[in-house]
Protein backbone atom coordinates (compact mmCIF):
# COMPACT_ATOMS: atom_id res chain seq x y z
CA UNK A 1 0.00 0.00 0.00
CA UNK A 2 2.75 2.41 0.99
CA UNK A 3 4.65 1.74 -2.24
CA UNK A 4 1.52 2.25 -4.35
CA UNK A 5 0.72 5.53 -2.58
CA UNK A 6 4.29 6.76 -3.04
CA UNK A 7 4.12 5.85 -6.75
CA UNK A 8 0.69 7.55 -6.98
CA UNK A 9 -0.96 4.35 -8.19
CA UNK A 10 -3.17 4.88 -5.14
CA UNK A 11 -4.25 8.47 -4.52
CA UNK A 12 -5.92 10.23 -1.56
CA UNK A 13 -9.61 9.42 -1.59
CA UNK A 14 -9.30 6.08 -3.42
CA UNK A 15 -11.50 3.40 -1.84
CA UNK A 16 -9.86 0.12 -0.87
CA UNK A 17 -11.63 -3.22 -1.20
CA UNK A 18 -13.27 -4.74 1.90
CA UNK A 19 -10.85 -6.76 3.97
CA UNK A 20 -12.54 -10.11 3.38
CA UNK A 21 -12.61 -9.55 -0.37
CA UNK A 22 -8.90 -8.65 -0.41
CA UNK A 23 -8.04 -11.70 1.73
CA UNK A 24 -9.81 -13.98 -0.74
CA UNK A 25 -8.11 -12.30 -3.71
CA UNK A 26 -4.64 -12.60 -2.15
CA UNK A 27 -5.40 -16.06 -0.72
CA UNK A 28 -4.24 -15.09 2.76
CA UNK A 29 -5.89 -15.28 6.16
CA UNK A 30 -8.36 -12.50 7.00
CA UNK A 31 -6.42 -11.62 10.16
CA UNK A 32 -3.36 -10.87 8.03
CA UNK A 33 -5.27 -8.30 6.01
CA UNK A 34 -6.87 -6.88 9.17
CA UNK A 35 -3.45 -6.37 10.74
CA UNK A 36 -2.13 -4.80 7.53
CA UNK A 37 -5.02 -2.31 7.42
CA UNK A 38 -4.41 -1.52 11.08
CA UNK A 39 -0.72 -0.87 10.47
CA UNK A 40 -1.55 1.30 7.45
CA UNK A 41 -3.91 3.39 9.59
CA UNK A 42 -1.18 3.72 12.23
CA UNK A 43 1.12 5.09 9.52
CA UNK A 44 -1.65 7.53 8.46
CA UNK A 45 -1.93 5.90 5.03
CA UNK A 46 -5.59 4.91 5.36
CA UNK A 47 -8.69 6.23 7.06
CA UNK A 48 -11.90 4.36 7.90
CA UNK A 49 -15.21 6.06 7.07
CA UNK A 50 -17.67 3.75 8.79
CA UNK A 51 -20.05 1.94 6.46
CA UNK A 52 -18.59 3.79 3.46
CA UNK A 53 -15.41 1.75 3.72
CA UNK A 54 -11.67 2.39 3.96
CA UNK A 55 -9.97 5.09 1.88
CA UNK A 56 -6.46 6.33 1.14
CA UNK A 57 -5.84 9.20 3.55
CA UNK A 58 -4.70 12.67 2.57
CA UNK A 59 -1.04 13.33 3.43
CA UNK A 60 -0.55 14.27 7.04
CA UNK A 61 1.83 17.23 7.02
CA UNK A 62 3.31 18.70 10.17
CA UNK A 63 5.15 21.85 9.09
CA UNK A 64 6.35 22.50 12.62
CA UNK A 65 8.43 19.31 12.68
CA UNK A 66 11.64 18.92 10.73
CA UNK A 67 11.96 15.93 8.43
CA UNK A 68 15.52 14.75 8.85
CA UNK A 69 17.33 14.04 5.60
CA UNK A 70 20.68 14.81 7.22
CA UNK A 71 21.49 11.76 9.36
CA UNK A 72 22.83 8.57 7.81
CA UNK A 73 21.03 5.80 9.64
CA UNK A 74 19.53 2.58 8.27
CA UNK A 75 15.81 2.66 7.44
CA UNK A 76 13.26 0.59 9.37
CA UNK A 77 13.49 -3.02 8.16
CA UNK A 78 10.89 -4.17 5.66
CA UNK A 79 8.60 -6.93 6.90
CA UNK A 80 10.15 -7.18 10.38
CA UNK A 81 8.57 -6.37 13.72
CA UNK A 82 11.45 -4.69 15.52
CA UNK A 83 9.67 -4.70 18.89
CA UNK A 84 9.25 -8.47 18.69
CA UNK A 85 12.85 -8.90 17.56
CA UNK A 86 14.16 -6.90 20.52
CA UNK A 87 12.01 -8.85 23.00
CA UNK A 88 13.22 -12.17 21.66
CA UNK A 89 16.84 -11.00 21.51
CA UNK A 90 16.94 -9.70 25.07
CA UNK A 91 15.23 -12.85 26.28
CA UNK A 92 17.97 -14.96 24.69
CA UNK A 93 20.68 -12.73 26.12
CA UNK A 94 19.28 -13.14 29.63
CA UNK A 95 18.96 -16.90 29.17
CA UNK A 96 22.59 -17.26 28.10
CA UNK A 97 24.16 -14.56 30.32
CA UNK A 98 24.21 -13.84 34.02
CA UNK A 99 22.44 -10.54 34.80
CA UNK A 100 25.20 -9.55 37.23
CA UNK A 101 27.79 -10.08 34.52
CA UNK A 102 25.86 -7.82 32.15
CA UNK A 103 25.85 -5.03 34.72
CA UNK A 104 29.50 -4.99 35.75
CA UNK A 105 32.81 -3.82 34.27
CA UNK A 106 34.25 -5.68 31.29
CA UNK A 107 37.66 -5.76 29.69
CA UNK A 108 38.00 -3.58 26.59
CA UNK A 109 37.92 -5.22 23.19
CA UNK A 110 35.12 -7.65 23.97
CA UNK A 111 34.88 -11.21 25.19
CA UNK A 112 35.90 -14.19 23.08
CA UNK A 113 32.25 -14.57 22.01
CA UNK A 114 32.11 -10.88 21.03
CA UNK A 115 35.29 -11.17 18.99
CA UNK A 116 34.02 -14.35 17.35
CA UNK A 117 30.83 -12.49 16.43
CA UNK A 118 32.92 -9.72 14.89
CA UNK A 119 34.88 -12.27 12.87
CA UNK A 120 31.61 -13.81 11.66
CA UNK A 121 30.24 -10.39 10.71
CA UNK A 122 33.30 -9.44 8.67
CA UNK A 123 33.59 -12.79 6.94
CA UNK A 124 31.25 -11.64 4.16
CA UNK A 125 33.68 -8.83 3.30
CA UNK A 126 37.03 -10.47 3.95
CA UNK A 127 36.61 -14.22 4.00
CA UNK A 128 37.79 -16.16 7.09
CA UNK A 129 38.89 -13.77 9.85
CA UNK A 130 41.16 -14.56 12.80
CA UNK A 131 39.07 -13.55 15.82
CA UNK A 132 42.27 -12.88 17.79
CA UNK A 133 42.75 -9.81 15.58
CA UNK A 134 39.22 -8.47 16.20
CA UNK A 135 38.27 -5.78 18.73
CA UNK A 136 34.67 -5.02 19.71
CA UNK A 137 34.28 -1.28 20.30
CA UNK A 138 31.44 1.00 21.48
CA UNK A 139 30.74 2.43 18.02
CA UNK A 140 32.86 3.40 15.04
CA UNK A 141 33.45 6.97 16.23
CA UNK A 142 35.18 5.83 19.41
CA UNK A 143 37.17 3.28 17.40
CA UNK A 144 38.24 6.02 14.99
CA UNK A 145 39.33 8.28 17.86
CA UNK A 146 41.34 5.46 19.45
CA UNK A 147 43.07 4.66 16.18
CA UNK A 148 44.03 8.28 15.53
CA UNK A 149 45.21 8.70 19.13
CA UNK A 150 47.32 5.53 19.11
CA UNK A 151 48.74 5.68 15.57
CA UNK A 152 49.72 9.36 15.33
CA UNK A 153 51.35 12.05 17.45
CA UNK A 154 50.15 15.63 18.05
CA UNK A 155 50.74 17.81 15.00
CA UNK A 156 51.08 14.87 12.60
CA UNK A 157 49.27 14.76 9.28
CA UNK A 158 46.47 12.34 8.42
CA UNK A 159 45.82 11.97 4.68
CA UNK A 160 42.24 11.78 3.41
CA UNK A 161 40.15 12.64 0.36
CA UNK A 162 39.03 16.29 -0.12
CA UNK A 163 35.55 15.37 1.10
CA UNK A 164 35.74 13.19 4.19
CA UNK A 165 33.60 11.90 7.04
CA UNK A 166 33.02 14.81 9.47
CA UNK A 167 33.74 12.50 12.41
CA UNK A 168 37.34 12.21 11.26
CA UNK A 169 37.69 15.99 11.02
CA UNK A 170 36.26 16.37 14.54
CA UNK A 171 38.60 13.75 16.01
CA UNK A 172 41.65 15.27 14.34
CA UNK A 173 40.77 18.81 15.47
CA UNK A 174 40.26 17.77 19.10
CA UNK A 175 43.41 15.64 19.23
CA UNK A 176 45.66 18.23 17.58
CA UNK A 177 46.23 16.33 14.34
CA UNK A 178 46.05 17.86 10.85
CA UNK A 179 43.98 16.36 8.03
CA UNK A 180 45.46 16.99 4.57
CA UNK A 181 43.53 16.32 1.36
CA UNK A 182 44.84 14.07 -1.39
CA UNK A 183 43.09 14.84 -4.67
CA UNK A 184 40.83 12.28 -6.34
CA UNK A 185 39.73 11.26 -9.80
CA UNK A 186 36.67 9.22 -10.83
CA UNK A 187 38.09 6.14 -9.09
CA UNK A 188 38.94 7.82 -5.78
CA UNK A 189 42.20 8.85 -4.15
CA UNK A 190 45.07 9.12 -6.64
CA UNK A 191 48.01 6.85 -5.74
CA UNK A 192 50.60 9.15 -7.34
CA UNK A 193 49.47 12.10 -5.22
CA UNK A 194 49.20 9.90 -2.15
CA UNK A 195 52.87 8.99 -2.52
CA UNK A 196 53.85 12.64 -3.02
CA UNK A 197 51.84 13.87 -0.04
CA UNK A 198 52.98 11.05 2.25
CA UNK A 199 56.63 11.85 1.56
CA UNK A 200 56.21 15.62 1.69
CA UNK A 201 54.38 15.64 5.02
CA UNK A 202 55.95 12.49 6.50
CA UNK A 203 52.44 11.14 7.02
CA UNK A 204 52.00 7.67 8.46
CA UNK A 205 48.18 7.36 8.52
CA UNK A 206 45.61 7.43 5.69
CA UNK A 207 41.82 7.51 6.14
CA UNK A 208 39.61 6.02 3.43
CA UNK A 209 35.90 5.21 3.08
CA UNK A 210 36.14 3.31 -0.23
CA UNK A 211 32.65 1.80 -0.61
CA UNK A 212 29.68 4.13 -1.21
CA UNK A 213 31.86 6.93 0.07
CA UNK A 214 30.31 9.41 2.45
CA UNK A 215 29.22 11.82 0.99
CA UNK A 216 29.86 11.27 -2.75
CA UNK A 217 28.51 7.64 -2.95
CA UNK A 218 31.56 6.74 -5.09
CA UNK A 219 32.90 3.18 -4.80
CA UNK A 220 36.61 2.71 -5.40
CA UNK A 221 37.20 -0.11 -7.94
CA UNK A 222 39.32 -3.12 -7.12
CA UNK A 223 42.25 -2.02 -9.30
CA UNK A 224 42.58 1.29 -7.43
CA UNK A 225 42.31 -0.49 -4.07
CA UNK A 226 45.12 -2.82 -5.05
CA UNK A 227 47.29 0.13 -6.16
CA UNK A 228 46.79 2.00 -2.89
CA UNK A 229 47.37 -1.15 -0.85
CA UNK A 230 50.64 -1.81 -2.70
CA UNK A 231 51.73 1.77 -2.08
CA UNK A 232 50.88 1.52 1.64
CA UNK A 233 52.99 -1.62 1.86
CA UNK A 234 55.92 0.00 0.05
CA UNK A 235 55.85 3.22 2.13
CA UNK A 236 54.85 1.47 5.39
CA UNK A 237 51.66 3.54 5.70
CA UNK A 238 48.78 2.58 7.98
CA UNK A 239 45.27 2.86 6.55
CA UNK A 240 42.03 3.28 8.49
CA UNK A 241 39.46 1.68 6.22
CA UNK A 242 36.08 2.92 7.42
CA UNK A 243 33.63 0.61 5.63
CA UNK A 244 30.09 1.04 7.04
CA UNK A 245 28.22 0.71 3.73
CA UNK A 246 29.88 -2.33 2.13
CA UNK A 247 26.80 -4.49 2.64
CA UNK A 248 24.56 -2.03 0.77
CA UNK A 249 26.62 -2.11 -2.43
CA UNK A 250 25.38 -4.49 -5.09
CA UNK A 251 28.85 -5.62 -6.21
CA UNK A 252 31.34 -4.21 -3.73
CA UNK A 253 35.02 -5.05 -4.34
CA UNK A 254 37.03 -6.70 -1.61
CA UNK A 255 38.13 -4.20 1.07
CA UNK A 256 41.60 -2.69 1.11
CA UNK A 257 42.28 -4.94 4.11
CA UNK A 258 42.15 -7.90 1.71
CA UNK A 259 45.04 -6.47 -0.33
CA UNK A 260 47.21 -5.18 2.54
CA UNK A 261 46.23 -7.09 5.69
CA UNK A 262 49.39 -6.01 7.50
CA UNK A 263 48.72 -2.29 7.00
CA UNK A 264 44.94 -1.76 7.31
CA UNK A 265 42.75 -1.16 10.34
CA UNK A 266 39.38 -2.33 9.02
CA UNK A 267 36.37 -0.74 10.79
CA UNK A 268 32.89 -2.23 10.39
CA UNK A 269 30.02 -0.76 12.39
CA UNK A 270 26.53 -2.09 13.01
CA UNK A 271 25.14 1.44 13.39
CA UNK A 272 24.90 2.15 9.64
CA UNK A 273 23.53 -1.19 8.50
CA UNK A 274 21.56 -2.56 11.48
CA UNK A 275 20.65 -0.28 14.40
CA UNK A 276 22.49 2.77 15.79
CA UNK A 277 21.32 1.85 19.29
CA UNK A 278 23.45 -1.29 19.28
CA UNK A 279 26.54 0.95 19.69
CA UNK A 280 28.81 -1.81 18.42
CA UNK A 281 31.61 -1.71 15.90
CA UNK A 282 34.36 -4.19 15.05
CA UNK A 283 37.97 -3.36 14.18
CA UNK A 284 40.16 -5.91 12.44
CA UNK A 285 43.70 -5.13 13.51
CA UNK A 286 46.58 -5.38 11.02
CA UNK A 287 48.79 -7.06 13.63
CA UNK A 288 48.31 -8.40 17.14
CA UNK A 289 50.98 -6.21 18.74
CA UNK A 290 48.97 -3.06 17.86
CA UNK A 291 46.02 -4.15 19.98
CA UNK A 292 47.32 -2.93 23.31
CA UNK A 293 48.13 0.48 21.85
CA UNK A 294 44.58 0.86 20.50
CA UNK A 295 42.93 -0.53 23.63
CA UNK A 296 45.01 1.79 25.82
CA UNK A 297 43.89 4.77 23.75
CA UNK A 298 40.28 3.59 23.87
CA UNK A 299 40.36 3.20 27.65
CA UNK A 300 41.51 6.83 28.01
CA UNK A 301 38.03 8.08 27.11
CA UNK A 302 35.66 5.09 27.19
CA UNK A 303 36.43 2.20 29.50
CA UNK A 304 34.37 -0.44 27.74
CA UNK A 305 31.48 -1.18 25.43
CA UNK A 306 28.01 -1.28 26.96
CA UNK A 307 27.78 -4.97 27.97
CA UNK A 308 24.04 -5.31 27.32
CA UNK A 309 24.14 -3.92 23.77
CA UNK A 310 27.34 -5.77 22.92
CA UNK A 311 25.78 -8.99 24.19
CA UNK A 312 22.68 -8.39 22.07
CA UNK A 313 24.84 -7.78 18.98
CA UNK A 314 26.79 -10.96 19.70
CA UNK A 315 23.59 -12.97 20.23
CA UNK A 316 22.03 -11.74 17.00
CA UNK A 317 25.12 -12.43 14.90
CA UNK A 318 25.57 -15.93 16.32
CA UNK A 319 21.90 -16.96 15.99
CA UNK A 320 21.33 -15.45 12.53
CA UNK A 321 18.98 -12.66 13.61
CA UNK A 322 21.47 -10.02 12.40
CA UNK A 323 21.41 -11.53 8.92
CA UNK A 324 17.60 -11.54 8.88
CA UNK A 325 17.48 -7.95 10.10
CA UNK A 326 20.07 -6.90 7.53
CA UNK A 327 18.04 -8.38 4.68
CA UNK A 328 14.95 -6.43 5.81
CA UNK A 329 16.95 -3.20 6.06
CA UNK A 330 18.64 -3.70 2.68
CA UNK A 331 15.29 -4.40 1.06
CA UNK A 332 13.85 -1.19 2.48
CA UNK A 333 17.00 0.79 1.61
CA UNK A 334 16.95 -0.34 -2.01
CA UNK A 335 13.22 0.43 -2.29
CA UNK A 336 13.82 3.93 -0.92
CA UNK A 337 16.77 4.36 -3.24
CA UNK A 338 14.63 3.57 -6.30
CA UNK A 339 11.89 5.89 -5.06
CA UNK A 340 14.42 8.68 -4.61
CA UNK A 341 15.83 8.22 -8.12
CA UNK A 342 12.35 8.42 -9.64
CA UNK A 343 11.48 11.46 -7.54
CA UNK A 344 14.68 13.45 -8.01
CA UNK A 345 15.60 12.47 -11.55
CA UNK A 346 19.15 11.74 -12.69
CA UNK A 347 20.52 15.22 -13.36
CA UNK A 348 23.33 16.11 -10.97
CA UNK A 349 22.64 13.07 -8.83
CA UNK A 350 25.21 10.54 -7.59
CA UNK A 351 23.61 7.40 -6.22
CA UNK A 352 25.45 4.17 -5.56
CA UNK A 353 22.67 2.21 -3.88
CA UNK A 354 23.26 2.92 -0.20
CA UNK A 355 21.38 5.02 2.34
CA UNK A 356 22.40 8.46 1.04
CA UNK A 357 22.54 10.43 -2.22
CA UNK A 358 24.79 13.25 -3.39
CA UNK A 359 22.91 15.98 -5.24
CA UNK A 360 24.35 18.95 -7.14
CA UNK A 361 22.35 22.15 -6.64
CA UNK A 362 21.45 24.62 -9.41
CA UNK A 363 24.17 27.22 -9.97
CA UNK A 364 22.32 30.05 -8.20
CA UNK A 365 22.44 28.25 -4.85
CA UNK A 366 25.21 28.30 -2.26
CA UNK A 367 25.31 25.16 -0.14
CA UNK A 368 24.83 26.68 3.31
CA UNK A 369 22.20 29.10 2.02
CA UNK A 370 20.22 26.16 0.66
CA UNK A 371 20.56 24.29 3.96
CA UNK A 372 19.14 27.30 5.80
CA UNK A 373 16.21 27.68 3.39
CA UNK A 374 15.52 23.94 3.56
CA UNK A 375 15.40 24.12 7.36
CA UNK A 376 12.91 26.97 7.13
CA UNK A 377 10.82 24.69 4.92
CA UNK A 378 10.97 21.90 7.51
CA UNK A 379 13.71 19.81 5.89
CA UNK A 380 17.16 18.97 7.26
CA UNK A 381 19.99 18.31 4.79
CA UNK A 382 23.80 18.62 4.90
CA UNK A 383 25.90 20.69 2.53
CA UNK A 384 29.29 19.99 1.01
CA UNK A 385 31.03 22.28 3.49
CA UNK A 386 30.39 19.82 6.35
CA UNK A 387 32.65 17.26 4.64
CA UNK A 388 35.33 19.51 3.16
CA UNK A 389 38.85 19.23 4.52
CA UNK A 390 39.66 22.74 5.87
CA UNK A 391 41.54 25.04 3.45
CA UNK A 392 44.76 24.75 5.44
CA UNK A 393 44.61 21.02 4.73
CA UNK A 394 44.66 21.46 0.94
CA UNK A 395 47.62 21.98 -1.31
CA UNK A 396 47.68 25.17 -3.44
CA UNK A 397 45.51 24.59 -6.50
CA UNK A 398 44.01 21.38 -5.08
CA UNK A 399 40.39 20.46 -5.81
CA UNK A 400 38.13 21.25 -2.87
CA UNK A 401 35.82 18.36 -3.67
CA UNK A 402 33.96 19.04 -6.87
CA UNK A 403 32.40 21.86 -8.88
CA UNK A 404 29.36 23.74 -7.56
CA UNK A 405 27.38 23.33 -4.40
CA UNK A 406 26.16 19.87 -3.40
CA UNK A 407 24.05 18.41 -0.61
CA UNK A 408 23.90 14.97 0.94
CA UNK A 409 20.42 13.51 1.21
CA UNK A 410 19.97 10.68 3.71
CA UNK A 411 17.14 8.23 3.06
CA UNK A 412 16.86 6.23 6.28
CA UNK A 413 15.55 8.61 8.93
CA UNK A 414 12.10 9.24 7.41
CA UNK A 415 9.45 7.20 9.17
CA UNK A 416 7.96 5.87 5.94
CA UNK A 417 8.49 5.84 2.18
CA UNK A 418 5.45 8.10 1.88
CA UNK A 419 7.04 10.72 4.13
CA UNK A 420 10.33 10.39 2.27
CA UNK A 421 8.82 10.97 -1.17
CA UNK A 422 6.91 14.01 0.03
CA UNK A 423 10.09 15.42 1.60
CA UNK A 424 12.11 14.84 -1.59
CA UNK A 425 9.46 16.56 -3.70
CA UNK A 426 9.51 19.58 -1.40
CA UNK A 427 13.30 19.60 -1.52
CA UNK A 428 13.33 19.65 -5.32
CA UNK A 429 10.67 22.38 -5.46
CA UNK A 430 12.93 24.47 -3.24
CA UNK A 431 16.04 23.76 -5.35
CA UNK A 432 14.23 24.77 -8.53
CA UNK A 433 13.24 28.20 -7.24
CA UNK A 434 14.85 30.81 -9.42
CA UNK A 435 16.01 32.94 -6.54
CA UNK A 436 17.17 31.76 -3.11
CA UNK A 437 15.51 34.87 -1.70
CA UNK A 438 12.01 33.67 -2.57
CA UNK A 439 9.95 33.08 0.54
CA UNK A 440 9.61 29.40 1.41
CA UNK A 441 6.07 28.34 2.33
TrEMBL record:
Q: Which domain of life is it from?
A: Bacteria
Keywords attached to this entry:
DNA-binding, Pyridoxal phosphate, Transcription, Transcription regulation
Q: Which residues form the HTH gntR-type domain?
A: 1-59
A single MF term (Gene Ontology): pyridoxal phosphate binding
Q: Which Gene3D superfamilies match?
A: Type I PLP-dependent aspartate aminotransferase-like (Major domain), Winged helix-like DNA-binding domain superfamily/Winged helix DNA-binding domain
Q: Which InterPro entries match?
A: Aminotransferase_I/II_large, HTH_trans_reg/aminotransferase, PyrdxlP-dep_Trfase, PyrdxlP-dep_Trfase_major, Tscrpt_reg_HTH_GntR, WH-like_DNA-bd_sf, WH_DNA-bd_sf
Which PROSITE patterns does the record associate with it?
Answer: HTH_GNTR
The family annotation for this protein states: In the C-terminal section; belongs to the class-I pyridoxal-phosphate-dependent aminotransferase family.
Q: What is this protein called?
A: Transcription regulator protein
User: What is the organism field in this record?
Assistant: Herbaspirillum seropedicae (strain SmR1)
Amino acid sequence: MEQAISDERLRPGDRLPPQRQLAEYLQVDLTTVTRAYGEARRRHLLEARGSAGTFVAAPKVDLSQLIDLSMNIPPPPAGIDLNDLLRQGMSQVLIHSDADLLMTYHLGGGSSADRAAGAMWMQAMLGPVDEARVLACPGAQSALAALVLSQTRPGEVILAEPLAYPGLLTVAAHLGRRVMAVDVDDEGMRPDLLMTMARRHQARLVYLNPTLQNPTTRTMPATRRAEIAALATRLDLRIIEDDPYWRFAAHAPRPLAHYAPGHVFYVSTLSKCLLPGLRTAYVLMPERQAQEEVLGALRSFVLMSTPLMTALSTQWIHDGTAATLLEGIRSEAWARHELALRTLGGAGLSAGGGIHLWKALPAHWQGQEFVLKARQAGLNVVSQSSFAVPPEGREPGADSGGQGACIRISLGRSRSRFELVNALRRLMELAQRRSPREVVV
